[in-house]
Structure formats: C-alpha cells, structure tokens
Specification:
This protein has 219 residues and is α+β, with helices and mostly antiparallel strands. 33% of the residues lie in helices and 12% in strands. The strands form 2 sheets. A 4-stranded antiparallel β-sheet has the order 3-4-6-5. Strands 1-2 form a two-stranded antiparallel sheet. The longest helix is centred in the first third of the chain and has 25 residues, at 2-26. The structure holds zinc ion (ZN).
Length: 219
C-alpha cells in the first residue's frame, strides 16, 4: 500500500508542476480548449511572447548535428535534456537513433509546404505530400518535434527495428509518436515524435496520455 501512495504522490507532484508553471506565467489557470493542438509547453513559450517558427536562439538547444542538419529542441520543460537522455539510453541498448529534422523556422515550413504541394507535377492545389503541417501550426515550429533517423542513416519507416525500442522506451522520457502518426494510420509518420513530458504520461497507459479528467483531479 505504501508503494502505491508513493507512486500516486510522485504522479500528482509531477502533474502539478507544469500546471503551476503555466498558471504562474499567465497569472490565471490555463486550460487547453482544443485538445491535442496545444500543450503546457507551447503555452509556456507563448506566455513569454514566442511564436511558432520564430523562436530566438536562446530558446533552443542544439542536441545533435548531422552532416547537413542541426537538430534544435526548445529549452522548455525538459524537452532538450530528455531527448539527449533518450539517445544515450538507446545507445546503451545498442540502438542508434538521431534527430534529423527538429526545430523548423516559419520560412522553412512555408518552403516545405510549397514544395510538397507540387509533389505531383502540375498539381499545386492539393494537399502537400508527404503530409505537411500548415505553416504556423507544426510542433516542429515550437522545437517540440523530432523526425528520427536510424542506424542505416534513413528516416524511420514502419519496419525500422529502432521503432520497437522507441515505442517501448521513449514515453518514459516524455517523447511519443502521436496517435495520428502511428503505423497503420493513413498518412502515418513513424519517424515523427513529439515531446509531451513524462509527467503527462501514465506509465501503464495504452498510449501514455492522461484522460482530461485525470488532469482536472489534480487542480
Ligand atoms: Zn515531423
């Protein structure tokens, strides 16, 4: 029984932390009206005046650099530190992963949108392919999403062996492959992982996310 109270105590404390921070930053209790499109971390970045795709250098941390790409993650919550810890944990298990495409500026999101919208030559009116977030809405613009590359130096596909390790372990570090991006979904993006914070994850939950009711109980 003692262990259960201990675990619950840690959970409640962990859940309180981001809520208190956000409330402090905004001077009021923040609620996420449109579930899924916001997060306490985005709200914290917005609260200090930052905009999607326009984060200043001091808000970002370079967590790795490949030959062509520099992977930057927002210094919010523990997003950057948690990512680096995740990479080390993977390495210890013999799994080689690396952040390929991470923070994306507004301009580069616009460029990606325009380029991909014309994926089918002559057809620039349709949805972009590969699917691309509308400029100003991507989690990449907040430095809270990473497209992961594997040992064979390619972006992770559904058959990538690294994917199983990530599914089992990354949520402990607060990084998840969102439901819409999972293999089997139309337009899946198994390489796309987002930081939601380990304090927002129930260790035994099916996809690691707390139901809304669970959050309210701690306020
Ligand atoms: Zn992505």
């Amino acid at each position: 029984m003692g262990w259960l109270i201990g675990v619950l105590g840690v959970l409640v404390l962990a859940l309180m932390a981001p809520i208190v921070l956000v409330a402090g930053a905004l001077g009021t209790m923040a609620t996420s009206g449109n579930s899924g499109s916001s997060s306490p971390y985005i709200e914290q970045l917005e609260a200090v005046g930052y905009e999607n795709g326009r984060l200043p250098p001091e808000a970002l941390n370079v967590v790795s650099s490949r030959q062509r790409y520099e992977c930057q993650v927002a210094r919010v919550g523990s997003a950057d530190q948690a990512w680096m810890a995740l990479v080390v944990a993977a390495e210890l298990d013999g799994v080689d992963i690396e952040g390929g495409w991470c923070y994306r500026t507004y301009q580069s999101q616009v460029a990606a949108w325009n380029r991909r919208q014309c994926y089918i030559p002559g057809n620039c009116d349709g949805d972009p392919y590969p699917p691309t977030a509308r400029p100003g809405t991507s989690r990449h613009g907040w430095g809270l999403a990473i497209d992961i590359w594997g040992a064979s130096d390619v972006i992770l596909g559904c058959s990538a062996p690294e994917l199983l390790w990530l599914q089992l372990n990354a949520p402990r570090f607060g990084w998840i492959n969102p439901d819409w991006a999972r293999c089997g979904q139309p337009g899946s993006e198994p390489w796309h992982w987002e930081y939601v914070g380990s304090e927002l994850i129930v260790p035994t939950g099916e996809n690691g996310l707390l139901p809304e009711d669970g959050k309210e109980e701690t306020t």
